[in-house]
């Protein structure tokens, strides 16, 4: 992840008015629907539920073009931020942003999130080999510089694409008081060296054009 004056890793989540906040749970297989239901209680902090819905939509798009395992990618993106529930709410805002005062908490959310994800998946007797990879992906989904697998690439890119959605951008602009034009220029400039898959790179370019025109994500 490139050095930045803006909040790229993990960032805060919230409710926006873009069309991209909607998600049809029936779009995923029953087993993933059940995993999502178990994850929900852990996603009510920082409005992570909406973030997860949007990231999941991007993950499903990426899986159509990239060679990923949906049995790893889908649960991983659903569960990737459940660890924020282990961080006291009054400390969460100190863990991310342009000038975090307690950035180590970002790693804590990854470690705790991996544990929570493993416990949830084991309740469904999920394949052990897939749980192992999902655990590793979540354990470093923000902090790890190099992806451990193509599935990890897809999860990382799905999470990053949130910032390019209308909802994600509204949240960042409001929470961190970033000038809109300056943020658009920044996000557009990092696309080619920040994203890890060709499909995500293409989607990010398309989203930037929509944001410039003031339109919601398709």
Give the gist of this structure:
It is built from ten helices and no strands. It has 218 residues and is an all-alpha fold. It has a single domain, classed as Hypothetical protein af1432 (Orthogonal Bundle).
What does this structure look like?
This protein has one domain: Orthogonal Bundle (Hypothetical protein af1432), CATH 1.10.3210. The chain is built from 10 helices and no strands. The chain is globular, with a radius of gyration of 16 Å.
Topology:
Blueprint: H1 30-39, H2 48-65, H3 70-79, H4 89-92, H5 104-123, H6 128-139, H7 150-161, H8 166-176, H9 180-194, H10 198-213
Oligomer: single chain
**What overall geometry do the principal axes of the alpha carbons give?**
globular
Poorly predicted ranges (pLDDT <50, ≥5 residues)?
1-5, 7-19
Strand coverage percent: under 5%
Class based on secondary structure composition and strand pairing: mainly alpha
CA radius of gyration is 16 Å
State the domain count. 1
* Main β-sheet description: none
> How many beta-strand elements?
0
CATH architecture: Orthogonal Bundle
CATH-assigned fold name? Hypothetical protein af1432
Q: Report helical residue fraction.
A: 55-70%
Q: Can you identify the CATH class?
A: Mainly Alpha
The CATH homology group name: Hypothetical protein af1432
- Cα-to-Cα separation, first versus last residue: 27 Å
Order of helices and strands, N to C? HHHHHHHHHH
Mean pLDDT: 86
